[in-house]
Amino acid sequence: MEKHINVVAALQIGLSIFNLLIAFLISTVLKLIGVSIDDTTGSTILLLIADIVAIVFIVISIPGIFAGLGLYKRKEWARILTLILSVIEIFSFPFGTAIGIYSIWALIQPETVAAFSKNEVSNF
Q1: Alpha-carbon distance 46 to 31, whole Å?
Q2: Mapping DSSP to helix (H, G, I), strand (E, B) and coil, where does residue 22 land?
Q3: Is residue 106 within 8 Å of residue 8, measured between CB atoms?
Q4: CA 113 to chain centroid
Q5: pTM for this model (two decimals)
Q6: CA distance to 23, 39, 50, 71, per residue, from 67 (Å)
Q7: CB burial class (10 A; 0-12, 13-18, 19+) of residue 82?
Q8: What is the DSSP letter of 109?
Q9: DSSP label at 73?
Q10: Contact status, residue 28 vs residue 49, Cβ threshold 8 Å
Q11: How far apart are alpha carbons 108 and 117 in whole angstroms?
Q12: Residue pair 79/112 in contact by the 8 Å Cβ criterion
């Protein structure tokens, strides 16, 4: 199960970085459109939407990066956070769905739970 845990960690970090890139792309496109139109109200609204979209994607992505890093270190809080994020990711079709289902499957296996429990005891 060690390989599965590492794969889940890499997928969480990868998906979070992908979401950050999407946030940057959407924000940049909306800002370019907002600057290029003549209507000041429309421009202001597009710039505001670009900022809101970027902030939302960043806020959603940061926990995934921390969860992935925590999984590499076999922290129990990271396993729980990843399970929560995986349930949310299921609604992000198609990649999030696949990653979410795989992550849930990998992290609820008895061997995985034991690996994280063993690590928590050894930290004291």
Answers
A1: 7
A2: helix
A3: yes
A4: 21
A5: 0.86
A6: 20, 43, 26, 6
A7: buried
A8: S
A9: T
A10: no
A11: 12
A12: yes
Side chain identity, residue 54: A
> Cα angle vertex 76, ends 74, 78, to 5°?
80
In this predicted model, what pLDDT tens digit does every residue of 62-108 receive, in sequence order?
Answer: 999 999 999 999 999 999 999 999 999 999 888 889 999 999 999 99
CA 96, CA 6: separation in Å to the nearest integer?
Answer: 17
Task: For residues 20 and 109, give the distance between their C-alpha atoms in angstroms, rounded to a whole number.
Answer: 30
Q: What is the amino acid identity at position 73?
A: K
Closest by CA to 16, choosing from 74, 79, 86, 72, is 86
Structure tokens of 116? 């994280």
Write out the two tokens for 60: 């959603």
- Say if residues 12 and 64 touch (Cβ distance below 8 Å): yes
Cis peptide before 94 (omega within 30 of 0): yes
DSSP state of 38: S
| Token reading at 105 | 């499957």
7-31 pLDDT, tens digit each = 999 999 999 999 999 999 999 999 9
